[in-house]
Amino acid sequence: MLFKLALRNIFGNGWRSLINMIIIAIMVIGMIWMEAMYYSWIALAKTQQKEWEYAAGMFRVESYDPFDAFSWKESQAPISPELMQAINEGKAVPTLLSPAVIYPRQSMLPTLVKGIPAGQNLLKFPSGKLAGEAEGYVPAIVGTAMAKSTQLEEGEVFTLRVKDSQGAFNTLDLKLVEIMQTPVPTLDIGTVWIDLQRLQELKLQPDMASTVVFNDPVLARLSVPGFKYISEKEFFSWLGEIMKTENMSKYMIYGLLMFLAMLAIFDAQALAVFKRRKEIGTLAALGMTKGRIIRLFTLEGTFYSLFGIVLGLILGFPLFRYFAVKGYVLPEGYDDFGIAGFSEPVIYQYPIEIFINVIGWIMLITIIVSWFAARRISSLSPVDALRGK
Amino acid sequence: MKEEIIRINKMGKAFPTGEGQFWALSDIDLTIAKGEFVGFVGPSGSGKTTMLNVIGSLDSPTTGEVEVLGYKVSQLNQKQSSELRSKHIGFIFQTYNLLPVYSVYENVEFPLLLLKMKPEQRRQAVLDALQWVGLMDKIKSRPAQLSGGECQRVAIARAMVKKPVLVLADEPTANLDTENSHNILDTMQTLNKDLGTSFIFSTHDQKVIDHLRRVVKLIDGKVADDAVQTSA
After folding, report:
1. By C-alpha distance, which of A45, A61, A73 is closest to A229?
2. Lower CB density within 10 Å: C or N end of chain B?
3. Residue B41 above 90 pLDDT?
């Protein structure tokens, strides 16, 4: 009975109802769009980093902190026999890193040199070009950001200077064989890539590595001296940190959207309680309890949001579909942020949790706001209500 | 001797005003028996509607006691008052007070939904009520599509559909022309005789007064006269 009456009242309210529903629909579209953008961007960033850098797991030298340049000097350890076997079987890929200096175009730049086996194919990294020699020089690869900052061009020769494990400085003349397009900026910014063996020889650190990534999750169980296992959660913790910052602005936008929509609901319901006092009095005279009358008005508000949500899903469908097919191209300059996931269009994904969260929150807040507006009925005397006072 | 359904003993009702309180009713002693066709008459402000509101447990007395169908109105909480009205009392208002979004059928059905009556019984009761008031051809119409007389007949059907012991009618003919007023009053008189439902009016309309079997005259919130009319 309450459902039927609430529905009739909403449809009987005409344009006012429609405007409320449209406001809620806009909020639904906005929130789902934003939630999907964050979700899809994180998913893309994770996929890209797994493909290029992490694979299914990683061992990292205990003292190595990628965010602490002072730790890089001591970030090498011998590869254990078990890991070496996995490397030989093509199930794992080691990398070695070292602080270095390069001399492009008569200038001197501190940098990080990383060695990766030229023959690996576990990661997407185009390491094949690092094999052998390039016209008598050691082949090197840098990313587009590094090429831009150093003004290096493909085919250019430059010198690399590295301090070996004995404390002596060794140099190599490198030839830039490829400027790679990588979606993972940590592989690009400030980094020069050469073949692992070359770097091991240069550093006098044969069979040593800074990280070893693998594609067989069973290897995660190995206990490797000098290395620690970096779980996926730990490796991608930076995403969580970014999301914490992003959440602030996201919740502010949600709050604003929610405030506008709830203002419309509150206004409609508070006005309805005022305008429909005679109806409230009649319902009380017919024997309806105040509790049921409040429930009726609360239900009307809830229906506004329910229809608004359905309207939002219908109106938003073409938009959601467009971004699921074409993706969202981030504005120019975002790829300079040094964060994965910004270099190609973010293809939207819409997992069910997004819909449950958005719809759940909107419904909950609408019910509270509607109840808040309707609760003044409890202080309304039936006699005054019948008189329209 | 007929069963007394309403007992009013030294009842007074006051409303707060800026300076103190205004006594709309005072020292009312009255009993009303089952099956009566009685009206409170008097000029505006004499306390007629307040009497109906207190009897209908929409309001409670300030002093004294009002007992309706064995329930002491002042002792009922909000839920019990609603239950009393829902089960035993029908209301007819001057301005009909129909639910505009409901059809004639649905308006009449509404009190039965509150009583949670079974659908089959409900349907029969609604059709019977519409038959009594002669509105079988309008069951799908909305209140906005009806004349004033028709709206008031819907209101009567809505008040009568649950076959209450008591119907309270507040100025039921005030918005109707003479012909419609007579039709409405005839209908209510017939229902009073056929079903034994007690009708209590508040009115200053002579047409209504002429139909009453008992007239309680109120002046300045006090019973000035209480007389049985043999001509009605």
Report:
1. A61
2. N
3. yes
Whether A209 contacts A184, CB under 8 Å: no
Does one domain contain both A257 and A370? yes
Give chain B's domain count. 1
Determine the structural domain holding residue A201 and report its residue range.
Answer: 93-209
H-helix segments, B143-211: 148-160, 178-195, 206-211
Q: Tell me: do A258 and A381 sit in the same domain.
A: yes
Q: Which residues pair with A139 in a beta bridge?
A: A175
| Same-domain check for residues A190 and A242 | no
Say if strands A109-116 and A138-143 run parallel, antiparallel, or are unpaired. Answer: unpaired
Query: β-pairing, A109-116 with A77-78?
Result: unpaired
Res. B164: pLDDT tops 90: yes
Domain that holds residue B91: 4-228
Low-confidence ranges of chain A (pLDDT < 70): 331-343
Distance from CA of B158 to the nearest CA of A (A): 9
Nearest chain B residue to A282, by CA: B97
As a whole number of angstroms, the distance between CA B157 and CA B195 comes to 13
Task: Provide the 10 A C-beta neighbour count for residue A204.
Answer: 14
Specify the pLDDT at position A171. Answer: 93
Burial (Cβ within 10 Å: 0-12, 13-18, ≥19) of residue A349: middle
Cβ contact, residue pair A12, B79, below 8 Å: no
Nearest Cα neighbor of B161 from B199, B181, B191, B182 is B191
Helix H or strand E encompassing A179:
strand A169-180
Region of poorest pLDDT, from A66-75, B31-40, B142-151: A66-75
Q: CATH number for the domain including B223?
A: 3.40.50.300
What distance in Å separates the CA atoms of residue A191 and residue A218, rounded to the nearest whole number? 31
Residue A62 covered by a domain: no
Domains: count for chain A: 2
Q: What are the backbone angles phi and psi of residue B4, rounded to the nearest 5°?
A: -85, 125
Looking at beta carbons, which residues of chain B come within 8 Å of A12?
A: 100-101
A vs B: CB pairs below 8 A? 65
Beta carbons within 8 Å of A310's beta carbon, 6+ residues apart? none
- Give residue B231's pLDDT: 65
Residue A369 neighbours by CB under 8 Å, 6+ apart: A262, A265, A266, A269, A301
Residues A205 and A98 reside in one and the same domain = yes
Of the candidates B59, B78, B91, which has its C-beta nearest A290's C-beta?
A: B78
Nearest to A284 among B58, B101, B111 (CB): B58
Which residue is associated with the tokens 């185009």?
A126
